[in-house]
Design brief:
The chain is an all-alpha fold. It contains 17 helices and no strands. Helices cover about 80% and strands about 0% of the residues. About 50% of the residues are buried.
Length: about 400
């Protein structure tokens, strides 16, 4: 175990790693906080659920529409300019949306669209750094494992921070504070040596498709969408479960159990020094993810569901780390930031589709139907992963031949 922990501590000893990790934590902790706080604020201001849903859709649409545009600018001109720009625009647009809630609906939608589209691209930037910085292959794998652990911590920490802010003020203030923290993380990341020295690779061909010209990337995006669909059923399926076996407040505890399991799974995976190519690890990780997704179907009360959710969560982080690593390898030269932006689009789309399908099935067949849908989605992902494993291994080896594999100077 100590040797596993040392892999993380050795990675964090790199001077160019410490800054991105710190500012990445600050900038991404509010991701779930902002959407939740904005939802509460809209409802507190008297908007109907339909109107609030429209505003939140504008927020998501802004992210999906402007995110790839921002990422392409990063790939062409470097990271700091867009980090600084979004760090300023995002909190201002978010504050404007909060204070425009009672004003003209068109102004509210426009401000919310800009706020969603200008979220500082901290995740994309950091994952691009891990794929291009002079890290060894094992260190790069550990860095992506750390990313998967952080993703689970953000799911838990964001709502907890929201609870603290709501105790001190109102939901609108909480949303603005979240936007300011996101901007602070973006500004801090822009000042790090790793971000300032990151150089955009030349692109042999510029066209509308951009990063999507990579066939391995398209395969990975399909896998990410199917995996996200599997997870998109959780909110509604768990809500339906606790209606039969507990109280509404238990949903947060069950999601927390999944987050804890995810963090443990990520730490375990990151502590391993496996030499097998990620393309070969992917089908196994997908199969484990699918088996774990079936665990909630065996639950009979709150505590058994909590154990099942922890089991499912523990399978998420290893799969996520492998997929992140493969995306970095599959990205064409000069498109790595855009590739990781499409990752966010794929996961958002998959989660939304999963929620919609689960809602229809649960309303007719009960809570177990939602988890069955998740298992079927996981089976599709597993079959696809086995079918394309060799192609992904080849893409990884080709990327490794042109990527730096040396260890940078320690502090």
């Amino acid at each position: 175990m100590s040797s596993g922990v040392s892999r993380f501590t050795d990675l964090l000893r790199h001077r160019f790693v410490q800054g991105p990790v710190l500012w990445g934590l600050i900038g991404r902790l509010p991701l779930y906080l902002v959407s939740l706080a904005l939802t509460l604020h809209l409802l507190d201001e008297g908007l109907s659920y339909a109107s609030a849903g429209l505003v939140l859709a504008a927020y998501t649409l802004g992210t999906a529409t402007l995110g790839p545009v921002i990422a392409r600018r990063i790939d062409r001109h470097g990271q700091p300019p867009m980090l600084v720009l979004t760090a300023v625009v995002h909190p201002l647009a978010l504050a404007g949306a909060v204070y425009a809630t009672s004003g003209p609906r068109l102004a509210l939608l426009a401000l919310t669209f800009v706020a969603g589209g200008s979220i500082p691209p901290v995740s994309q930037v950091i994952r691009a750094l891990w794929s291009t910085l002079p890290l060894s292959r094992d260190e790069r794998s550990t860095a992506y494992s750390l990313e998967s652990v952080f993703a689970e911590l953000f799911v838990i920490g964001g709502p907890l921070l929201l609870s603290v802010l709501l105790a001190l003020g109102d939901s609108g203030t909480a949303a603005v504070v979240g936007g300011v923290l996101s901007g602070l993380g973006g500004l801090g990341l822009a000042t790090t040596r790793a971000s300032r020295q990151w150089k955009a690779e030349p692109v042999a061909r510029r066209d509308l498709l951009g990063a999507l010209r990579s066939r391995p990337l398209l395969i990975l995006l399909a896998l990410l969408t199917l995996s996200a669909l599997c997870l998109g059923v959780l909110n509604l399926a768990l809500a339906a479960f606790v209606e039969d076996h507990g109280s509404a407040g238990d949903v947060g505890l069950l999601l927390g159990a999944s987050g804890v399991g995810g963090a443990i799974g990520g730490l375990w995976f990151g502590s391993r020094s496996g030499t097998s190519p990620k393309g070969r690890q992917l089908p196994v990780a997908c199969a484990a993810f699918t088996l774990a997704a079936a665990a909630p179907l065996l639950a009979w009360d709150f505590w058994s569901m909590a154990v099942a959710m922890a089991m499912q969560g523990s399978s998420i982080a290893p799969l996520t780390a492998i997929l992140y690593d493969l995306v970095g390898s599959a990205a064409l030269p000069g498109t790595v930031s855009e590739a990781f932006t499409w990752v966010l689009t794929a996961t958002t789309t998959g989660g939304a589709v999963g929620s919609q399908l689960a809602g229809a099935l649960i309303g007719r067949f009960g809570w177990s139907a939602g988890f069955v849908l998740g298992v079927l989605s996981g089976c599709c992902a597993t079959l696809l992963a086995f079918a394309v494993s060799r192609r992904l291994v080849a893409a990884t080896e080709e990327s490794a031949s042109r990527a730096p594999d040396s260890v940078a100077e320690h502090p």
